[in-house]
Amino acid sequence: MTFRKIPLTFLVLTLGATCVYAKKQPKYQQAHQLTPEQAALVERAIAREKVLIKAIQQRTPLVETYIQDTRPDVKLYEVPVDDQYMLSRVDFGKGFFDKSYEPRGEVKHGWFKGSFEAITGLTKALGLDKNFTYNPTGFMEMMFVDPSGFDQQHYVFSYVRREFLGSVRTWVFDVHPKVAGMGRFYGRIWVEDQDGNVVRFNGTYTGPGNEDSSAHFFHFDSWRMNVQPGIWLPVAIYVEESNLGVGSKQQGLKAQTHFWGYSLKLPTRDSENVSVKVDDAVDQSDDSGDVGPLQASRMWITQAENNVIDRLVEAGLVAPLTPGGYEEKVLGQIVINLIVPNNLAFTDQIHCRILLTDTVEATTVGNTILVSKGLIDSLPNEPAIASVIAMELAHIALGHHIDTRYAFNDRLLFPDESTFQRISMFHSDVDNATAAKKAMEYLNASMYKDQLPTAGLYYAELQERGKVLHALNTPKLGDSLLKPDGTPWMADLEHMSPKIDWDDLNQTAALPLGSWLKTDPWDDRVHMLNAKRYAPMNARDKMPFEVTPVFYKLQRYDLANAEPAAAPAGAPADGSTTPAGAPAAPATPTPAAGDPGSQPAQPTQPQAGQPVDGTAAAPQQPQDQQPAQAQNPQ
After folding, report:
1. Which of 89, 159, 237, 515 is the S-S candidate for 629 at Cβ 3.0 to 4.6 Å?
2. Average pLDDT of the segment spanning 237-255
3. How far apart are CA 229 and CA 491, in angstroms?
């Protein structure tokens, strides 16, 4: 075969023409002319965005961000290899400054401290270019399309279609900057057709000039919810990036940010003291009996318990109790299922409450069991929940209570952000070891005794994933389920479990985050997800302890029932209400014994529980504030 030489001049001219042609290519797709009706809706959306910013500036919600770094995996597609966790109470009225919740033992400044300093700290956590100067309000921009320049002078709008997000009809527009600018939004927005509020936007922010914005900004999906009449507020953000490295160092990132506590009382601007109000005090003036020393000691512990729980609710860290809600209907019944067969005689009723963090932790405060939302969400079945409750019951029975100095109210008059530093609710290693041993006795005498191997799978998976998910397993207020050496406190359960088999689709060791509960972003109450459950189709669908995308079935605030609703985070894009990849009962209404969202069995029944079909423990407030979040500083 012979090769013909091509003149160098021809190559230069050809390459030159190609370069000129490439330079002439538009950066954005050509926009379609808007109709008068479409243009009017865009103008309403622009106006409503300004109203939303002013509404947010009057609030001081809690903002939680959980980030997982990932790497490719042949069988599981990708697996987490590292994580970061941040929690803060943000004061939007002060230019996006905040006061961070610091874990105990940490003295370094946290997230958003002094705005720019804190945002650069988050930048490091997200692995962004440390040498780049970022916009001080970079992370907060993910709550807004553009907090300073969202108008038709700075952006081009192109109509796409109409689309329902749940029961809310929206008009969809593609948006790109009219002129280049750092931090301008580029993506798609969903505008509800009643008042013109932007209820979802999906895309990224642009870099300076024509350079690649991926060097400075991540791609994100930001959701809002109708939390009160006429008020739509941010509830969740999901961030995802892949191919952040090359070759063997190729990495990805997934993150969720949740917002809640919008109705929390604004902190006092001029004072760090916070008053404590005790609600639902019980009048016992008709009780004529005297109080003996033992009873007095127990009442003193109860007073400390009530003070701490009230303070945590006020700080937005513990969900207010919903009568007949998940805490009573599900967790309360599991408590009974353990107390009755073990003949435990507690002088006061045992209560269960939900700690509103994604960290995997649990503890006790007096006769109250605190279990984190992240722990509940990841537990695959009722026996696994019972194992957690059993250990906390053991702490109570063994007298492992918090320091009774909190019986004095003045010890709780401190700023919200100091909660993790001031309130110590963790148990010693000796107490945890003793409680774990006692918990096994309770479980072996209970209706769950024949299902303990399935509960043990959870601890085996927790130990395996705990090697890389350190932040998820670092408690903020209570106890980790893992010992300092990384093995579970309930090691006896782990030893009973079969070997984890990713190919066994009937074996579910742990669930993705956000699988069971949702938090009302306005009043902080927790409710069960009203979602269908699907069995995994492959090993990748299991996703234990992993961050997943977010989808909401939005609903307008219902004045009649005072219950705004939205679909569970993580719901698939096909419009179903199932959290993505939540491995649980099959799609048919076949009973799935042991589901943590099911109605727990009575102590006299031989089986664990009824199936979770989206109706058990029906949410009082079908308002989702679910997984979604992580941001990218600019």
Report:
1. 237
2. 77
3. 50
CB 167 within 8 A of CB 142: no
- Say how far apart CA 450 and CA 483 lie, in whole Å: 26
Among the three residues 470, 497, 520, which one is the final residue of a domain in this structure?
520
d(CA 185, CA 173): 13
Q: Does some domain include residue 2?
A: no
**Pair 118, 100: CB distance under 8 Å:** yes
Q: What would the mean pLDDT of 196-208 be, rounded to a whole number?
A: 89
Amino acid letter, 339: I
Distance CA 162, CA 190 (A): 9
Which parts of 69-200 fold into alpha helices (H)?
Answer: 116-125
**This prediction's pTM:** 0.77
User: CA 435, CA 479: separation in Å to the nearest integer?
Assistant: 12
Identify how many contiguous H helices and E strands the chain contains and give both numbers: 12, 15
Report the alpha-carbon angle 343-344-347, nearest 5: 135
CA angle, 189 as apex, 516 and 581 as ends, to 5°? 25
Q: Which residue has better confidence, 244 or 173?
A: 173
Token representation of residue 134: 């970022």
Residues 207, 216: Cα–Cα separation, whole Å: 7
> Which pLDDT does position 264 carry in this prediction?
82
Residue 630 falls inside a structural domain: no
- SS3 call for 151: coil
Residue 562 within a domain: no
Question: Whole-number mean pLDDT of the chain?
Answer: 74
Using the 3D structure, point to which of 219, 244, 260 is the last residue of a domain.
260
**594: which DSSP letter?**
T
**Predicted confidence (pLDDT) at residue 272 exceeds the cutoff of 70:** no
In a domain, 42, yes or no: yes
SS3 382: helix
